[in-house]
Amino acid sequence: MKYLETKHERNSAKITALLLFILLLLLFVVGPPYLDTPEEYGVAINFGNPSEISNDTQPDESSRADADEIADEIEEAEAEEIIEEDTAEELVEEEIVEEETTEEVVEEEAVEETVEEVAEEDPAEVAEREAEARAEELLAQQEEEALKIKQANEAKEAKEEAERVAKAKAEKEAKEAKEAKERSEKEAKLKAEKAAKAKADKLAEEARKKASKLAAERKAAKAKAKAEADAKAAADRDAKAKAAAAAAAKQKEGGSGSSEVSFALIENVPIYPGCEGGDNNAKKKCMSAKIKKFVGEKFDKELASDLGLTGIQDIKIYFKINSKGDIVDIRAKAPNPKLAAEAKRVARLLPKMKPGRQQGKAVTVPYYLPVKIQAGN
After folding, report:
1. Does residue 371 lie within any of the structural domains?
2. Within a domain: residue 36?
3. Dihedral of the CA atoms 133, 134, 135, 139 (nearest 10)?
4. In a domain, 85, yes or no
5. In the chain, which ranges are continuous DSSP H helix?
6. Is 334 in contact with 315 (CB distance < 8 Å)?
7. H helices of 255-298, where?
8. How many domains is the chain built from?
9. CB atoms within 10 A of CB 190
10. Containing domain of residue 290, as a range?
11. What is the pTM of this model?
12. Is residue 49 exposed (0-12), middle (13-18) or buried (19+ Cβ within 10 Å)?
């Protein structure tokens, strides 16, 4: 039935039926009482005028026979009375059953009338009740859904909180492990660096001691070589001085002799252009410096490397400044002939000088120039 679709309508129908059922029960229990047959129910028999009967009168035979017949009739009447009573009871029971059936029919008719009344209700009221019922159901559903959502959110928040705590704990443990690993690696690195530094310092100290020893040995060897060279040069100078002195004495005594005087003994040294000022010693120093600078500028320094030579190359140059101031009799000594040839070439480029003088006369003055060239690395 389309009017019993909503919960409200169904509840109303149930309540109405329950009330009708209770009402019928009350009618059945409090209904009309059972009709008993009255005790005076039966047939009254008049046997004559009672006033004529007396206890002193004795009945005769005919009266006794009539009395027996009457007694029989009374018994038959009583039997018929009993049967009639039974029949009356059955009729009463049937009437009760019919009343119960009638009550049930009335109940069904009342239910149908209630249903018809419900069916005949105003559609607007029915719609309003349906809307209210739907609103109540919707509200109940919304509350239930809100409760479920709240529970789900609480469970989700609890889960997220647990995950966050677990994540934070894992991150903290990972960070602590990483920091511990970094500390361990740093300590190991520092220890290795310290050991390496100690080893490097030890090796450096050993190398420094070795270098110091080699430097000392080289210095000692150089000092020794220099001392030997100085001694030899001094001996050569002494010898040359003696020879020059002897030659000068001989020339002075005899008026003849060699016109060559050593650079160390010459009274007036040859004058290099630009060295005119100063005494004889100043002129000597200026001449030596100018010649050394000139040779250093003009000498081909790459020649030794091109020749495949390495290290310092010692070159000795000999030449004479004659009585006219020209450079003559050039000789050179070097580790390689090409270096010697280059030394001679540079010596020939020296400018003309004022000749040296001994006792007022121009003389030839020999000159010795040592040159050192660095070849390669």
Report:
1. yes
2. yes
3. 100
4. yes
5. 7-29, 61-119, 123-254, 280-298, 303-306, 337-348
6. yes
7. 280-298
8. 2
9. 10
10. 259-375
11. 0.35
12. exposed
